[in-house]
Design goal:
The structure holds two protein chains of two kinds. Chain A is an alpha+beta fold. Chain A has four helices and four strands; from the N terminus they run ααβββαβα. In chain A, 33% of the residues lie in helices and 19% in strands. About 23% of the residues of chain A have low confidence. The longest helix of chain B has 23 residues. Classes of the chains: A alpha+beta, B alpha/beta.
């Protein structure tokens, strides 16, 4: 049955709010989001001076960028005789009759093999549900798309290993 | 609260040569607006507007009253110049080169009701004798785009045609439309499985739309564009989506004034209870104000919703058609928006992430409509 159901939590879109933005007056400090924002901002400001009780914030590790990852992973596929096209659109069935449109970093259309390197922007599209669907398809009839996690630069060599292991497993299973 | 009029529908007739399954215009009878009422309506609208008033000819099918339509245009342009601008909502079956010449001469633009591909369109938009109307319209598209390459296609989706949505949209853009305005028939009997089907279809359209923008194809699809704008530009505020009875009204063939064209029906009881005046005596201010106030109410059922301001719950006309109350939201709207807005945001996220130039121009450049038009002229000239 259809119903009216307020959305209590919604991930903030990643594309920018424009210069035209006049936030409706119901988004104020009285709303949970307003309070949360104010709290986070206070926390960060305190932490930035180094004098707050939380101390300076830890530096995030440097991560392998998408273009760097592509260079590494493409080379592994090429070394195995598989050429890839970048930014390929696919429709993935997450539940019967339910599909999600995704765009993957590298894909070979005739072999139905590819990968997606999940940087910090991708989680909104590659939700746990989508990743589970992709993993399930790898074990069935394809398409065979390996989703590879955002990787710290110091562990970049892992990318090669993950890609090669993926290709080896597909060969062993007779998929390619 | 009462503002000057900006938009009015002018219903020239209740008659129509089609029998579309979702039509809200009531029984198709040969009841037309008289010449006297039509000219009185124009005088009333010009008087009630401080600035420009856009009048859209409606029906039934307004081209069935071609002589009256022309007389109204001549009268208005002679007396009021461009203070009153005209548009037409037409099913397109009666358009011909003579009409297009008239429209061009008098600066009239029209939106064409075309639901999608032949299967989708003919499933619901048939002539009175039962034949589909797609072919009659499709033959005219070349001339229509010659007249105005930016002609809008207006498409309505019902549960029975939801499965054709993606294919239909692709078809419309492939046929040459640059703007597709699509909405659901919210008063239809929607079920959960229809929502799932719609989700599937919108995902497919998202894939096509993403590629189209990457390719520099300047298309606009209202379910996506309008929702992206509610984040990229400005959320919906009161009166943005629907300002019924305030800056927008509708005038029935009898001269009765209604809050919006969706309230007219066949202009007899019980529809007549919603009339807020007539062109002879003017507005019934109390009734008018009550409609406005109700439309502007904050929706209690939406309290705490993170999507408030991004969804279509402000449209009092749609609410009224589906629930009988301007302020009561039909569940189908909520389900539809909760399903659609995440799809649209994922699409916009990916277009932004991939730095697609047309995405940035469309949604963040205030001068895009003008710069795009100039671009198109230059391309056409260059040939």
């Amino acid at each position: 049955m259809l119903k009216i159901k307020p959305v209590e939590r919604y991930a903030i879109p990643r594309y920018p709010r424009g210069v035209y933005c006049e936030c409706p007056d119901f988004i104020s400090l009285s709303t949970p989001r307003g309070v949360l924002t104010a709290t986070v901002m206070a926390f960060l400001l305190e932490a930035c001076t180094g004098s707050g009780t939380t101390g300076p914030p830890p530096l995030p590790p440097e991560m392998v960028t998408e273009s760097e990852a592509r260079a590494i992973i493409d080379q592994v596929f090429a070394g195995n005789g598989i050429s890839l096209t970048h930014d390929v659109d696919l429709n993935i069935e997450t539940h019967p009759g339910d599909t999600v449109a995704i765009n993957v970093d590298g894909f070979n259309d005739s072999l139905q093999v590819g990968y997606e390197y999940l940087d910090d922007q991708d989680h909104l599209i590659f939700t746990p549900e989508v990743r589970a669907a992709l993993d399930s398809l790898v074990n069935e009839s394809g398409p065979y798309v390996k989703s590879i996690d955002f990787t710290p630069r110091e562990q970049a060599a892992l990318l090669e290993a993950v890609a090669q292991e993926f290709i080896d497993s597909l060969r062993a299973g007779g998929a390619i | 609260m009462l503002e000057s009029l900006k938009y009015s529908a002018l219903c020239l007739t209740h008659n129509c040569n089609l029998r579309c399954s979702y039509c809200y215009a009531g029984k198709k009878v040969n009841r037309r607006m008289t010449r006297e009422t039509a000219l009185q309506a124009i005088d009333f609208l010009a008087d009630q507007s401080d600035g420009r008033c856009v009048v859209t000819f409606f029906g039934g099918e307004p081209l069935l009253e071609g002589d009256l339509l022309k007389e109204v245009v001549w009268y208005s342009q002679k007396k009021y110049g461009r203070k009153v601008d005209f548009r037409i909502n037409t099913n397109g079956t009666l358009l011909d080169s003579e009409w297009l010449k008239f429209f061009k001469k008098h600066g009239l633009y029209f939106a064409l009701s075309l639901d999608g591909n032949r299967a989708q369109h003919d499933a619901v938009r048939r002539f009175a004798r039962g034949a589909g109307s797609y072919e009659r319209i499709a033959d005219k598209l070349e001339d229509i785009f010659e007249f105005n390459p930016y002609t809008i296609a207006v498409s309505v989706v019902v549960p029975e045609t939801a499965g054709y949505l993606a294919e239909g949209i692709r078809h419309l853009f492939d046929r040459g439309f640059r703007y597709v305005l699509q909405t659901l028939d919210y008063s239809a009997n929607w079920r959960s499985r229809d929502i799932k089907q719609l989700k599937n279809q919108y995902e497919k359209v998202a894939g096509f739309y993403r590629q189209a923008l990457r390719d520099g194809w300047k298309i606009a699809y209202s379910p996506f564009d309008e929702r992206i704008k509610t984040w990229a530009q400005k959320p919906y505020g009161r009166g943005d989506l629907c300002d019924l009875a305030n800056t927008q009204i509708a005038i029935a063939a009898s001269g009765q004034i209604y809050p919006c064209v969706q309230f007219i029906g066949d202009d007899t009881d019980p529809y007549r209870e919603n009339a807020i005046g007539d062109v002879t005596d003017g507005f019934d201010t109390d009734k008018r104000t009550r409609f406005i106030e109700e439309n502007y109410l904050d929706k209690a059922s939406c309290k705490g919703c993170e999507l408030y301001g991004r969804c279509a719950t402000y449209c009092g006309c749609v609410n009224w058609r589906a629930t009988g109350s301007v302020s009561a939201i039909p569940p189908i709207i909520c389900e539809h928006e909760r399903m659609l807005i995440p799809i649209v945001d994922r699409l916009a996220n990916s277009l932004y992430k991939k730095k697609v130039p047309l995405f940035k121009r469309k949604f963040y450049e205030p001068t895009f409509p003008v710069s795009s038009y100039i671009e198109d002229c230059l391309i056409k000239r260059g040939g």
